[in-house]
Design goal:
Elements (H helix, E strand, L loop, with lengths): L7 E2 L3 E2 H28 L8 H30 L2 H30 L3 H15 L6 H54 L31
Keywords: Membrane, Transmembrane, Transmembrane helix
Organism: Mycena rosella
Protein name: Tetraspanin
Length: about 220
Amino acid sequence: MVYVRSRKFCCCLPVRFGVFVMSVAALLGGGLVAIAAWIQIAHLSENPLANNDKISLYIVAAMFTILALVGAFGLIGALARKPNLVSIFGGMLNVHLGLSVLTGAFAIYSLFKQSTDQLNNALAQCISDTALNGSTEEHIVDACKTAINVAKGVVVAAYVVSWLVELYGCFIVHNYVRQLHEEKDAEHMNTPIAAPMGAAYAVPVPSYAFTQPVQSYGNKV
């Protein structure tokens, strides 16, 4: 009997559970973000954005729509234990990671290369929101500048963390695909091979001289 060792991640969790959780998270999380992005796109005529922000919004909507589809493939493959579907999920996850890095880099570049008008508008909005606290103008401006810089840092950190998590997820999927192939091989090795029914086998009879009846012990010529 051949047994296949269950591969783990995070020291103790089975990789199948990891693929299942990742698939559900990608399907639900990606779907929700994609829906929100497409709704915002549908209302661009009422709430216009700058060109760079509009491009970033379309990219986010497309990327998270793809992520939801990728999650659907992974969920079906994890539940059905189909190596081919899980392999497709892993390949699509790798592609999505690459595209996410490219689009995220563009979004970060756009965030730090905002025009002076955009920065002034954001600063003016922040000042108007915090002016009710009774602070002096100088304190308000300093606080708003700090808040904007912190927000930029949070965005960058969120992108980096998401990339690292997705990269680790690619390794989990790869290990699960290998485990499924090993399980398939073990099933073939454990399957008994049945002999063909009705096959007749001739019993070989020795033909050297002393096996003849007349030459056996006790017989006399």
